[in-house]
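Q: Got a minute? One more chain.
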Amino acid sequence: MRAAAVLVTAVVFGSTAPGAFQSTGSRGGTSTPQHVETQRETPLDPERLKSAIDHLGTVDYDVRTAAARSIRRAPVATVVPALIDAIANHADGYVRFRALVILSGLNDSRTHDVMVQAMSAKNDRLRAVGYAYFESNPDPLLVSRLLGALETESSETVRPALTRTLAAYGTDARVREALNGLVIKGQDYFRSAVIEAIGVAKQDGRLQDDAVLAIGKIGDKKSVETLAGLQRTAPRSVQPTIAAAICLLGINCSSHQGYLEESLKFSMETDGYRDLLRASTAGLAALGIAGNADAVTQLIDYGGPSRDPARAAIALALGAVALRNTPFFLKVLQARPDPKPATVLLGEAFDMLEEDLAEERFYVTVRRGYWAAPENSPARKLAETLIQTLDF
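A: Always. Here it is, folded:
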């Protein structure tokens, strides 16, 4: 996990010695995103490309980030074969993982087969990326294999990615049957991932928040009776989750969202209510992921001037929206007079999260938006701000 307080330098490949990486600024510094963007196709000779791949595994975050940037900006025809070789053969397991993540964003036809192979890797990180890739790049021919993995995969860092990917194939009766069964018989950690992925309500202590939100995600208005009952009996720390679920059902959303704002404000101003704080930010995040612009705006407005512990909780909630509904998040951000506070919060969220593949997808979306937008347009300026602040 990256340290949230680290200052990440904006590094570009310059006229340095082979394998060297040069720092030219820091987050919020003077290096311009326009300068970074002009290096869309920066050739690397074989020695420098190998050095860049090797540096993907260094403990120095600045150097690791510079290496990833140089690889992304090199010609695909040169980079892809080198990444594939590193994924298969590099001695450093973390380098193999990071190479696989970067490959996922390069839109190359060879990526599919590499990801299929990754699903059988001994390295947990590689398996997780392999499974997760097919959540957003579905291949129905893999359903049988994914179901087979459900019987054998036991890693707590991999299984959530597997279950979320299977949920993307929910029209398949075999998948629905398998995941419904896991809600009843699985370990709590795994069951929580299943509940989040497929929206099955199972209320038993620690899983109650997930189950309540799942009711809202299902969207059946008849469930409001269950939620109304919970409002009368559930502890205070669960009430924001119930409010978010009712809002997701489309019932009296404005008042329930108002409650979420009030509970967030109260928990920020009053010591000893961290559970309420987490529930309030998670509830607003759920609404934001569902396309509620006001919820995202509230997270940004309260998060901008905040301090820890509230700031960390708000940043993580905002990060969840950005990663789970990137196009919508960018639309909301573009409409703000000053996107900088939100991008700073997002940078802090990315520092805390271990969502490498989702962050890579976010990066790809931002880059594509940059090149698709007219010069000097709000969309391009926002992309520039994100690229500079997040140090892509």
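A: The longest strand covers residues 11-12.
Q: Perfect, thanks.
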